[in-house]
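Lecture 7 notes: from sequence to structure.
We start with the chain below.
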Amino acid sequence: MSEAARSVLAVQNASIYPRGGLDVLSRIEVARLRDASSGGMHDLLRRCALAVLTSGSASDDPRAAQEMYPHFDIQVLQQDRGVRIDLVNAPAMAFVDGQIIRGVAELLFAVVRDLAYTAIELGPEHAEELESSAGITNAVFGLLRNARILKPADPNLVVCWGGHSISRDEYIYTKQVGYELGLRGLDICTGCGPGAMKGPMKGATIAHAKQRRRVTRYIGITEPGIIAAESPNPIVNHLVIMPDIEKRLEAFVRLGHGILVFPGGVGTAEEILYLLGLLLREENEGIPFPLILTGPAIAAPYFEQIDRFIRLTLGDAAAERYEIIVGDPVAVARKMTAGIKRVREYRVAQKDSFFFNWSMQVPADYQQPFIPSHQAMAALDLHHGRPAPALAADLRRAFSGIVAGNVKEDGMRRIEEFGPFEIHGDGDMMQALDALLVAFVQQRRMKIAGEYRPCYRVLA
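Predicted structure tokens for the same chain:
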């Protein structure tokens, strides 16, 4: 084994004391936190903590870190002074000269904080509250507030969506766009991982430094099923772990003031369909929400294919809710800045908050968790003639299922046991879907490394 390989596999024990949301707790709160971490969620805590401790990993295999560090463990212990987190056989890459890297420690505290909040505040005894649309939105609000993400300030948060597996030219472009956004005083929120999630943050850090902005937000929103495959990039300074993909998507929409979409794969397509489905609802028609699809010049064919698929499935009205700008970071930043200005004016007129988008109506069928079993995937209603928001919801679920089959442990196990998911629908729609997925595979947007084996079959 080489010296480099040995250094990667090296481990270390440590005890750390949380700050930021876990530093001032009563004894009862500490006891509840300890009980939650030692109960049924301990394995989940361990997996999420390991993802954070291996931040910067180039692998998108959710099992890789666990196989590399099989003896890693984490314990949340109660002391009179508060909480102590013990790490056993932790990856040495998270430490410098025996001390845990401060940014890694902060992300680790966020893992404990959010998983404990979910277990304590959204546990089985609260199931009835989560049956209503308003109850789920309040849960999203509570998680974001508990994470100290909600800041009463002028709108300036741009959500950036895009793939973890993108080309070098596309990655450089995301940095250029992030730089232009940062020069204009805009903060960045992404899915927290590598690729198009890291690039805008990296560009914005330089611009914020030039503008001498000392209070900056690089927010990463993830969920337990995806964090192991898309570990937080080192620039994230606010990490939030939502309980599932549906609450994660709602958090993006509630928190952000505008959304940029860079090239990506099935996860990015899922996000686009989710947002378009909401914007096409009659009650959301008048709400300003800037949505820009952008990439370098070489990405023009990618966006043309995405645009054709959206027009075929959801109609031309859906295409009117976004703008495609290719190869011009300055134009993107200016357009987004102008769009956020309109958002501010609307929120003032409607007396809506700047820090949480209460006006956007998110129906219950967009909020209920979709479990991508083979039966559920085959039952998706992907046919013409349905209202666009309803069709968008099922198309979103189709892409969500493929994401699960690609990079989520539960989904991968289902594929290994029962074979690929089957997706049925109208012939022209399935032909367009298959062509889109084939393009994603050919452009290596499904997987960072190794040969991709499809977890799906598209059938008319």
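Points to note: The mean pLDDT is 91. Residues 370-459 form one domain.
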